[in-house]
Design brief:
Helices cover about 30% and strands about 25% of the residues. α1 crosses α8 and α9 packs across α13. The mean pLDDT is about 95. The longest helix has 16 residues. With about 400 residues, the protein is of the alpha/beta class. The strands form 5 sheets. Strands 12-11-8-13-16-17-18-19 form an 8-stranded mixed β-sheet, with helices on both faces. The protein folds into 2 domains: about 190 residues, Rossmann fold (3-Layer(aba) Sandwich); about 190 residues, Rossmann fold (3-Layer(aba) Sandwich). β9 and β10 form a beta hairpin. It contains 13 helices and 19 strands. The structure holds flavin mononucleotide. Flavin mononucleotide (FMN) binds next to α4. Keywords: Decarboxylase, Flavoprotein, FMN, Ligase, Lyase, Magnesium, Metal-binding, Multifunctional enzyme. Its cofactor is FMN; Mg(2+). This is Coenzyme A biosynthesis bifunctional protein CoaBC. GO terms for molecular function: FMN binding; metal ion binding; phosphopantothenate--cysteine ligase activity; phosphopantothenoylcysteine decarboxylase activity. Pathway: Cofactor biosynthesis; coenzyme A biosynthesis.
């Protein structure tokens, strides 16, 4: 095995068994191809690179050979790589991903021109219906050129998936590595939640003590982000409402911020709007009676009066067809299950994920996934793996 392949599966097995041809063309964004190929491999993909001559002005075939552990096609030769990778033969690729894709290559692919290794591969892929995904990379003026726009629309009509660009003001921002990898996972995945509207509510709520201080908690929001990613990978139309987070939210996930429990309650729609709502948020049970201004720092002792806040889960019930809550306790075993089931009944939940706080460390967790029908699954692994399992379990139950 090529030593570079050692990174395969280091993040997940979600692309296990998937062969991806990565077409690289002559944009400055070609420098991203090294990391993109490695990230796809971390999720288990086998990546084979085809490069145009202009791409070689920006990165070398040697680097991409090293990155992927596979030979790079810079020219179609007697091996007929376009046919062996994309023709209807054993070992046919699962996806042709052209990233970055220049305006030149988009237009040639739309016209059926096959004069580089990448355009020739695309020509075959469109004929054999191997999925083709294009990540355009060019400045806004090139992208808005009417001929390029016509070609983009033509290719979309022919079933090609476009990832980005994100147009804001006078800029066309290329999709980043994570957004591309997520789009690939969604494209090649089972899409068991396609057409479903899903909301994740996460992070640490903050209740104001005075105008500058808050009562909050140490929830990082990591589980919420992982759930949103796992749901999007299964094709769900995903939103993340979040309070304070200490992990970053990928910018391709639609998100809205709230501060306190009462802010969150105001955001809940009156009607049934979501197919699935998951609430790993650490929401406050009590709120201080807020004092105006700033409490003096000179007092020896101060007393805060806390009042009980309304419960959020019962209010979410009206907008969610499937509602999942989370319960962190400082007990485990039967006691944890008993408490979790009581919370499930109180709030008419469809699922509850419970854990002993002692079983959670950075990136790792041990949890019980409990369903309304009484099924209990014990799960141990990273937060990303737990999120993946929760989303799969929901898909199994709402199908
Ligand atoms: C420094 C530099 C950066 C470029 N960046 C882009 C780009 O981002 N997008 C694009 O469409 N063309 C870009 N070009 C122009 C392409 O390289 C040119 O159109 C070339 O013919 C593309 O060939 P290919 O599509 O076969 O790779 C750039 C050229 C240079 C010299």
């Amino acid at each position: 095995m090529h030593p570079s392949k050692g990174i395969q599966y280091t993040k997940s097995r979600i692309l296990e068994g998937k062969k991806i041809i990565l077409g690289v063309t002559g944009s400055i964004a070609a420098v991203q191809a090294f990391e993109l190929s490695r990230e796809l491999m971390r999720h288990g993909a086998d990546v084979h690179v085809a490069m145009t001559q202009d791409a070689e002005k920006f990165i070398t075939a040697v680097s991409m050979h090293f990155a992927t552990g596979n030979e790079v096609t810079t020219e179609i030769d007697g091996r007929t790589q376009h046919v062996s990778f994309l023709g209807e033969y054993e070992g046919q690729a699962d996806l042709l991903l052209i990233s970055p894709c220049t305006s030149n290559t988009i237009s040639k692919v739309a016209a059926g021109i096959c004069d580089t290794s990448v355009t020739t591969m695309a020509c075959v892929a469109l004929g054999t219906k191997v999925p083709l995904m294009i990540v355009p990379a060019m400045n806004l003026a090139m992208y808005e050129n009417p001929a390029v726009q016509r070609n983009v629309e033509f290719l979309k009509g022919a079933g090609v998936t476009f990832v980005g660009p994100d147009i804001s003001g006078k800029k066309a921002k290329n999709a980043g590595t994570q957004e591309i990898v997520e789009a690939v996972i969604t494209k090649l995945g089972k899409n068991r939640l396609a057409g479903k509207k899903l909301l994740v509510i996460g992070g640490a709520a903050r209740e104001m003590i005075d105008d500058v201080r808050v009562i909050s908690n140490i929830s990082s929001g990591e589980t919420a982000v992982e759930l949103a990613l796992a749901a999007a990978r299964q094709g769900a139309e995903t939103e993340l409402w979040h309070a304070s987070m200490s992990v970053s939210i990928p910018d391709f996930i639609k998100s809205k911020k709230f501060e306190s429990v009462n802010d969150l309650i105001k955001m809940i729609p009156d009607e049934n709007e979501y197919d699935i709502v998951l609430v790993p948020a650490a929401l406050s049970d009590y709120s201080p009676v807020r004092q105006k201004g700033k409490i003096s720092s000179d007092e020896e002792q101060i007393t805060l009066t806390l009042t009980k806040l309304p419960k959020v889960l019962p209010q979410l019930r009206r907008t969610a067809r499937f509602l999942a809550g989370f319960k962190a306790e400082s007990t485990g075993g039967e006691e944890l299950i008993k408490k979790a089931k009581a919370r499930m009944d109180e709030n008419s939940l469809d699922m509850i994920v419970a854990n002993n706080i002692l079983d959670v460390s950075e990136g790792k967790t041990k949890s019980k996934i409990i369903l309304k029908d009484g099924t209990i699954e014990t799960f141990e692994g990273s937060k990303a793996e737990l999120a993946e399992r929760i989303i799969e379990s929901i898909a199994e139950h709402i199908e």
